[in-house]
Design a protein that fits this description.
It is built from 14 helices and no strands. It has one domain: Orthogonal Bundle (ABC transporter involved in vitamin B12 uptake, BtuC), CATH 1.10.3470. α3 packs parallel to α8 and α4 runs antiparallel to α5. The radius of gyration is 20 Å and the shape is globular. It is an all-alpha fold and 320 residues long.
Length: 320
């Protein structure tokens, strides 16, 4: 790691600390740290810390999944929901909400839906022992469209009360109703992110070209299968608890690739820190922008992310 990248990592880390501080002290009602330590305010502190931890996990998991998929699929538009996890989780969650058992079974239903969608995509794309990139992308698109159509159909048959719950979940939220769920997601996301980081050098080689990677002794098909598995596990677990949050896994990797370069050994930790900061700030906006109303965080990430992506796209076009 060169001197410039060390400074960037330090700056990102300090920014994350500031974001955590703002996330703790600011909300519909602002408190100082000393006020939050009072007995009558400790529940508020607990709720805000839970949201911050959820935001950090979501930012890390989605952004690193985006990095891995962009590398192995050689597609700059690849993002965590490309393989049908969002539509599968959405269908599972919608069914749980419509049935009326979402408070208990929604995370499980969403996780199961996401995993089933990925299994379907994988089997549609598989050709022998290989997974052709184009077939995988097309299978993901087809499954996503099919499941999205079923979601719309189910929603059209639902009551207004259930419909509100569906829409709210589909656009994402950092609200954590059960600390056990947060811990379970943490035990899934963090090890999976570490697995991707361990494979950073393999990602560097695959990004250059699969043939070159094979000449270096890398079993590219095995690496791709491992990365597909861990990225799908990350996405399914996150979607099951916080809904669908777009743009994080797409724009943050591109921003950090522009800043620190394509070396995944540096790109992955830098992206983790920026994505965590981004999610905390977006969650803060979702809670305070139209206080006391809370806006789904997916709306905030879309409003912020779309212009950023357009700017990045135009800047790359100018470079060419």
């Amino acid at each position: 790691m060169n001197k410039f990248n060390r400074k960037i990592i330090l700056l990102l880390f300090l920014t994350l600390i500031l974001a955590v501080f703002l996330g703790i002290t600011h909300g519909p009602v602002h408190f100082s740290l000393s006020e939050l330590m009072l007995t009558q305010n400790k529940y508020i502190l607990y709720l805000r810390l839970s949201r911050i931890l959820m935001a950090i996990l979501a930012g890390m998991g989605l952004s690193v999944s985006g990095i891995a998929l962009q590398a192995i699929l050689k597609n700059p538009l690849a993002e965590p929901y490309l393989l049908g996890t969002s539509s599968g989780a959405g269908l599972g969650a919608v069914l749980a909400i419509i049935i009326g058992t979402y408070k208990i079974y929604l995370p499980f239903a969403a996780f199961l839906g996401a995993i089933l969608a990925v299994i379907l995509v994988y089997n549609l794309a598989k050709q022998g022992n290989k997974i052709p990139v184009q077939s995988l992308i097309l299978s993901g698109v087809i499954v996503s469209i099919a499941f999205s159509g079923i979601i719309v159909f189910v929603i059209s048959l639902s009551s207004n009360e259930a419909l509100h719950g569906v829409i709210w979940w589909l656009w994402g939220s950092m609200q954590v109703y059960d600390l056990k769920l947060l811990l379970i997601v943490g035990f899934i996301v963090i090890p999976c992110v570490l697995v991707i980081y361990v494979l950073a050098q393999d990602l560097n080689a695959i990004s250059i070209g699969e043939e070159d990677a094979i000449h270096l002794g890398i079993n590219t098909e095995t690496i791709k299968k491992i990365l597909f598995f861990v990225t799908c596990l990350i996405t399914a677990s996150l979607v099951s608890i916080c809904g669908i949050i777009g743009f994080v896994g797409l724009i943050i990797p591109h921003i950090m690739r522009f800043v620190v370069g394509p070396n995944h050994k540096i790109l992955i930790p830098a992206t983790c820190i920026l994505a965590a900061t981004f999610m905390i700030i977006c969650d803060l906006f979702s809670r305070t922008l139209f206080s006391p109303l809370e806006i789904p965080i997916g709306v905030i990430t879309a409003v912020v992310g779309a212009p950023i992506f357009i700017i990045l796209l135009k800047s790359k076009q100018k470079v060419r």
